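Request: Not sure, any thoughts?
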Amino acid sequence: MACGVLPAVDKHLCSFQRWLPGHLADIADPEHAKTIRLFATWHVLPGLRARAERSHITPSIRRFASEQIKYATAFLQWLGERNTTLASCGQVDIDAWFAENAEHARTRLRGFLNWAMQGRYSRRSLAIPAMKISRRPALSEDERLTALGRLLTDTEIPMRLRVAGVIVLLYAQPLSRVVRLTIDDVIRDGDGVLLRLGEPPSPVPAPVAALLLEHITNRGNMNTATNPASRWLFPGRRTGQPLGPNHLSALLNKVGIPIAAARGAAIRQQLLELPAPVVADALGYHDKTTSRLRNETGGTWSRYAPGDHARSPTGWVPRGTSEVGGPPVPRA
């Protein structure tokens, strides 16, 4: 695929397609296997293919897809033990299963239940309990700054971990997006350096810029036959592939950088300093996400109107200017 001999296919999509037949073969009940095959064919796989065409499939998305299949299979088996089928499943059965299982399992089964009701494989009147959203606590601002300082100064930490950790702590980027950065996303603007995460590119502070440029000069996994001209900011060992986000997360955790808590602290600080629409555009977040996080942090930008503030409506005159267009009059 890297040489263009074969068409490019997402490796996680291929992995799921190889795993699925084996799972279906292990299902003892033929009707259960038929239902799971339909669910995988018409719900799970189309979602994965759409994601692969739009951007790329992360390891967490691949894992979620297989867990949807596993929990749907377990649910059908559980119904069978109660002498019930998917078609005859009632609200009492749904409530009992949700009461017996943790939130992780409930989240994985939700897609299957919605698909079954929409496709009339089960009663359409079933009510699925609301999903509970739990978030890990973020680092405090002091903890975030301490972690930043250590990554900038501790030469015992591998360079790629220092750079990746700084990007998370400064710009609240998920590692799945960090590993997809290329050296072309690092822009030299005169004496300054910009990092393209959204639009416009974000300025990089001088100490971080020096670290980033040093890392580009000495990137790892470049002295192999598979990556002689890699453009990835964090090249992986496989041909044409960046470093895996799960592997990078494990390495950062080992050096004391908890990724989820670090991202939470970084986005919270950004939203306390800037309007949510500005943060969304610059860091590549959805505006609804930044608005929700801004409200949770107690931000005060609710009256901010996004758009081009350099333009003024036709005929508008700033307060304090003279009628003949003279310079602004100083206000006391």
Summary: Strands lie at 186-189, 192-195, 202-203.
